[in-house]
Amino acid sequence: MKFDFLSESDQAYFIHKASTLVEALPYIRQHSGKNIVIKYGGHAMGDNILSQKFSKDIGLLKEVGINPIVVHGGGPQIGEMLKKKNIDTNFVEGLRVTDIKTVKIVEDVLSNVINRRIVNDINLTGGKAVSLVGNQNNLIEATKLKKTVRDNDSNIEKILDLGFVGEPVKINTSIIEQSIQKGHIPVIAPLGIDKDGNTYNINADTAAGAIAGALKANKLLLLTDVAGILNENKKLISTLSFNDAKNIINEEYVLGGMKPKISTCIDAIEKGVLQATILDGRISHALILELFTEHGIGTQIYS
Ligand code: ADP
Ligand code: MG
Asked: In this predicted model, what pLDDT tens digit does every residue of 227-285 receive, in sequence order?
């Protein structure tokens, strides 16, 4: 076909666009009607233009019949608020030590600021996002995280007290499923509640993994601020088997926030999620590239 009114380079551009759409078709079929859990990182959501693109991508997934479920972080934004209030904070193995004052701020920033902003952004693009807060309506039942570390010198195991850092014990999926059935896009703040009504700060990767596992999601996508898992030479590892992922977690070059990400992927796959990907949320339309093109991006961990 010839477009008399277009230059040759314009024609090539539109033909390329058309083939991208056609390339997407098998992927759309593969995920249509299925749940995809997306962790939207605190770092990946700092930029306004990128977050508008993210919102449009989420809207597009919904329009083509996929059920996106967004779980968001808030690390940098929580950090800023703590700084403003002169509250010191520190991290152990990528997890924020959370005392009672800190958990109140975490709750406020996650549920009143970040969650609302993401819901709003998606709704502005024409989607129908709803806010779900993990410590409300028993959505995420949690318990205090019990973490131990082995002292390198003495080889003795120590119990770490991270304060109000929780781990999910049960996800009440019916709340999420009901909103999906209504055609809504759930946007979930990673807070948990225990039997005594205490609120816990839950690492957003951990929460996303538990939700993906409970929903038996097709995919878990962890958006972050690096290309994926980098090896000792800072080169991207593009695929990892489940067993290799289990080994890599103890490597010296896997530090900080990357540790909970990898263990989350492992847990999610153990619970039946088909594939988990750690990818760069700073790339425009990262979700679309990952889901709908032959190349994919980031580090894919498969069962
Ligand atoms: P997020 O807000 O997305 O959860 P985190 O800071 O918690 O981000 O985790 C991502 C960070 O993990 C990266 O920015 C990087 O500094 C760190 N990291 C540690 N080890 C690795 C590794 N081997 N490959 C990639 N990133 C790593
Ligand atoms: Mg993190």
From this structure: 999 999 999 999 999 999 999 999 999 998 899 899 999 999 999 999 999 999 999 89
**Residue of the CA atom closest to atom 5 of ligand 1:** 257
Tens-digit pLDDT profile for residues 128-181: 999 999 999 999 999 999 888 777 777 788 888 899 999 999 999 999 999 999
What is the enclosing helix (H) or strand (E) of 265? helix 258-270
pLDDT at position 11: 87
Nearest CA to ligand 1 atom 7: 257
Among 82, 84, 135, CA closest to 105: 82
Contact 279, 38 (CB under 8 A): no
What's the predicted TM-score (pTM) here?
A: 0.93
Mutation choice for ligand 1 from 39, 95, 238, 258, CB with most ligand atoms inside 8 A: 258
Residue nearest to atom 11 of ligand 1 (CA): 257
Give distance in angstroms: CA of 75 to centre of ligand 1: 12
Q: Angle at the Cα of 38 (from 34 to 43), degrees rounded to 5?
A: 170
Sign of CA dihedral 176, 182, 187, 191: negative
